[in-house]
Every structure is written in structure tokens, then in C-alpha cells.
């Protein structure tokens, strides 16, 4: 709560400075830009609520929901509003998507995404991955894995509906581990681990691209921890802190709260 | 505070601050109602409106700037895109082409531009439009100049 208050204070102090500088004003409300948002083609900047309201006004004039909105400043056709930019991630609101059904990354999602911008291996002293393989812990099923995978993939590709990808990767993992189970006594743990990494990487790469390697590492880290999601997050947060590496975590979280409270009002008007 | 009110106060502040920035436009807000404004604009030079001062009345809707302001000429003007009796203005940016980035000040500028560049193909004043469409520029200009003298210039003597 104290952090929130501090963040609000920062926003306010920034706002009053901006007030005199018309360059950073939102062209719609002419006030300081709150929750700066950008149109995806021309990158003109507006308050999130201002440009969202305008998009809704434009949409209400059409019989069918339009998929684009012209920039109020330059008339370029734009298809989405980029918002919540905090240096490591952003959110995107498509013009033709209904806000109620749109997917907003939770704080936990955003936090997971930020973890991908940290140096790999700073938790190696807490969770021992090679010990996990050596002691054949992978023979025990992990009941939290599927939920963990879902959140991780949602955060990485910023989509809500990732079920197919989750089942696919989960299936590949299980197949890889159970196959090992049968003849695990013959294989060296390093070899089991390598084969696991290879098959999961192959399964995940089409969806996660360059983040695949780190993703596979994070899976192993989670499995090696033997913890449930809450406990695992707690360890991460304890080591990494909430605010690092993204500088604006507090403010962006504030924005999230702010936005969810404001939207119903727009929907009514 | 309503978004429209807040925005109009910003515009008011801006108008006060930049009073001398555009000598052709003088925007005044009603003392008791921020949604009512009047503007005095100078007829652009090298047009039949040169030397005239035209009064505009703004009525700003509650949804401003998501909805455009309603503007009409209070001063009689002979122009194809202005209704001769009501002063209603036919200008795309006041209808479909409105953008919330326009301000009352920039709307005034657009109206001055419209005075200099009439669109005879979408006339509200058919007599004026027909003169231009039939190529009688001289006829149009002398009619427009006459009404500028009659209605938009201080009476002599």
C-alpha cells in the first residue's frame, strides 16, 4: 500500500511538471498523458483511457465493429493500442476486441516475464537441477506442473488461450520422462536430461522462439524445486525482489488497478 | 470533473496564454458557461471577406472532445458552405472527419481556411455555390464582398 502511495505521488509530481510542456500532453484531454499508450502503426501517444474512449466512439458509428481506428493526429490506420510499456513488456489492446473479454496479464504473469530478463542461474544454489536428474526425482509426478506451464506460456506469448500449447508441451514432457522411466536404470542422468531438453525444446520452439532455451531451464528449475507455484514464486521474489529488474513495476501495477476500476464507467457511457 | 469541462479549461488557459499568437482569431468563453464560446475571426486576405470581422458561436457538447462542437456564423456571410439564414457551416471536420485532437482554436483556423477555399460542390448556400460552379467568380466575389461590407465591417459615419 505504501508503495502504491509512493507511485501515485511520483505520477502526480511528473504530471505537474508535464503540465507546462505541451509536447508531452495527451492530444485528446490536453492534460498530462496518464498510462501512456501508443497506436501500433504511427506510435502517437495518448492516455490509455482517452484513446480507448475515442476508439469506442468510432466503433459506435459503425454497424459492425471496425478492426482499425484512424489516429486522431495523423489519420493513419491503426489496429491496436500498445500500453503498459515498462521496459521489459507491454500489453496490446486490439481495436476490435471487447474489453471485457480481453486478456490482461496479472501481476504474477508480468513478474514471470521479467524473470526472463534476468541472468540465468542465480537460483542454482537454492534449487539443484543436476541433483534433480541424478536422484531421478523426475519419476515422481508434479501436480502443479500443468498450471505452472500455463501461466508461464501465457506470460511469454501474452495470450490467454494457450491450452493447446500447454497440452502439447506437457504431453511431450511426460512422454520423454515416462519413456526414460522404463529404462532409466540404463541411462546416465546427464543423458536423460539432455534428451528431455532436446524434446521439450523442439516442442516449445515454434511458439516461444528465442526464449525456448530459457523456458526449458525454467521448467527444470521449477521441477527441481519440488515446490508448488506459490512457494516457488516466493523463493523467486525473495531472491529477485519485486521491483527488479523492471524499474517501473510498482507504477505499472498501479496502472493495472487503475484501469480495471475505470473501464466499467466507459462501458456505460 | 467531467472530461469535457477539464479539457475546455485547458483550452481556456491556452487561449489566455497565447492571446497574441494568432491575431486573426479572438476566442472568448461565456462568463458563466464553459460550454458556450464565441469567436471573432478576420476574413482572410485576398478574399472577398478581407477586412471583415466575423462572429462565430460555439456550442460545445458534453461529450467533447469525442463529439465535435457545433459552430455557426452569427455574422451574415455569403459563402457556398455557410447557410445564409442560420449560419450553419458545412465542414467535414465538424461532422464525420472530426478528430478529438482538434481544438476550438484549430476549428477557427479551419473555418478561415474554408472561407478562402470554398467547396461549391457541397453547398449550403446554393446561390453562392451556383455562381462558382458556373464559373462566375466575379459575380461570387462581388456578392460576397457586398455582404462583408454590409454585415462584417464597422458602419461608417
Automatic annotation (TrEMBL), chain A:
Key words, A-Z: Metal-binding, Zinc, Zinc-finger
SUPFAM superfamilies named among the record's database cross-references: RING/U-box (SSF57850)
A Pfam family assignment: zf-C3HC4
Alphabetized GO MF terms: zinc ion binding
Residues covered by the RING-type domain: 26-75
Protein name: Uncharacterized protein LOC107465407
TrEMBL record, chain B:
SMART domains, A to Z: UBCc (SM00212)
Protein name from the UniProt record: E2 ubiquitin-conjugating enzyme
Ranges where the UBC core domain occurs: 3-153
Enzyme nomenclature, EC number: 2.3.2.23
PANTHER family reported for this sequence: UBIQUITIN-CONJUGATING ENZYME E2
CDD domains: UBCc_ScPEX4-like (cd23812)
InterPro entries, sorted: Ub_conjugating_enzyme, UBC, UBQ-conjugating_AS, UBQ-conjugating_enzyme/RWD
Family: Belongs to the ubiquitin-conjugating enzyme family.
Database matches in Pfam families: UQ_con
Annotated GO MF terms: ATP binding; ubiquitin conjugating enzyme activity
Keywords assigned: ATP-binding, Nucleotide-binding, Peroxisome biogenesis, Transferase, Ubl conjugation pathway
A single GO BP: peroxisome organization
Active site (record annotation): 90 (glycyl thioester intermediate)
Amino acid at each position: 500500500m505504501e508503495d502504491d502511495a509512493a507511485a501515485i505521488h511520483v505520477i502526480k509530481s511528473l504530471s505537474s511538471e508535464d503540465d507546462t510542456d505541451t509536447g508531452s500532453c495527451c492530444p485528446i484531454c490536453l492534460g498530462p498523458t496518464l498510462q501512456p499508450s501508443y497506436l501500433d502503426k504511427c506510435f502517437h501517444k495518448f492516455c490509455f483511457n482517452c484513446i480507448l474512449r475515442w476508439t469506442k466512439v468510432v466503433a459506435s458509428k459503425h454497424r459492425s465493429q471496425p478492426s482499425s481506428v484512424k489516429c486522431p493526429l495523423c489519420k493513419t490506420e491503426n489496429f491496436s493500442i500498445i500500453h503498459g510499456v515498462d521496459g521489459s513488456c507491454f500489453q496490446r489492446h486490439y481495436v476490435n476486441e471487447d474489453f471485457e473479454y480481453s486478456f490482461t496479464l496479472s501481476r504474477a504473469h508480468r513478474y514471470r516475464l521479467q524473470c526472463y530478463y534476468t541472468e540465468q542461474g542465480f537460483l542454482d544454489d537454492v534449487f539443484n537441477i543436476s541433483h534433480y536428474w541424478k536422484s531421478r526425482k523426475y519419476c515422481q509426478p508434479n501436480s502443479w506442473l500443468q498450471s505452472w506451464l500455463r501461466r508461464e506460456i501465457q506470460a511469454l506469448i501474452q495470450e490467454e488461450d494457450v491450452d493447446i500449447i500447454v497440452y502439447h508441451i506437457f504431453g511431450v514432457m511426460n512422454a520423454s520422462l515416462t519413456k526414460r522411466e522404463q529404462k532409466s536404470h540404463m541411462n546416465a542422468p546427464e543423458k536423460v536430461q539432455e534428451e528431455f531438453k532436446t524434446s521439450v525444446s523442439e516442442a516449445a520452439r515454434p511458439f516461444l522462439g528465442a526464449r525456448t532455451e530459457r523456458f526449458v531451464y525454467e521448467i527444470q528449475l521449477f521441477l527441481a524445486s519440488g515446490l508448488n507455484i506459490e512457494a516457488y514464486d516466493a523463493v523467486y521474489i525473495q531472491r529477485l525482489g519485486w521491483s527488479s529488474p523492471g524499474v517501473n513495476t510498482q507504477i505499472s501495477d498501479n496502472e493495472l488497478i487503475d484501469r480495471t476500476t475505470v473501464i466499467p464507467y466507459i462501458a456505460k457511457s | 470533473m467531467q472530461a469535457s469541462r477539464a479539457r475546455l479549461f485547458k483550452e481556456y488557459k491556452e487561449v489566455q496564454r497565447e492571446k497574441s499568437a494568432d491575431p486573426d482569431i479572438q476566442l472568448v468563453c461565456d462568463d458563466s458557461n464553459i460550454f458556450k464560446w464565441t469567436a471573432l475571426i478576420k476574413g482572410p486576405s485576398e478574399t472577398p471577406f478581407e477586412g471583415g470581422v466575423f462572429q462565430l458561436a460555439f456550442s460545445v457538447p458534453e461529450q467533447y472532445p469525442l463529439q465535435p462542437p457545433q459552430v455557426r456564423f452569427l455574422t451574415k456571410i455569403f459563402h457556398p458552405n455557410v447557410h445564409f439564414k442560420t449560419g450553419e457551416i458545412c465542414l467535414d471536420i465538424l461532422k464525420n472527419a472530426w478528430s478529438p485532437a482538434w481544438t476550438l482554436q484549430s476549428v477557427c483556423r479551419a473555418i478561415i481556411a474554408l472561407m478562402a477555399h470554398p467547396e461549391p460542390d457541397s453547398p449550403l448556400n446554393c446561390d453562392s455555390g451556383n455562381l462558382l460552379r458556373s464559373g462566375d467568380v466575379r459575380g461570387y466575389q462581388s456578392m460576397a464582398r457586398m455582404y462583408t461590407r454590409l454585415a462584417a465591417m464597422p458602419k461608417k459615419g
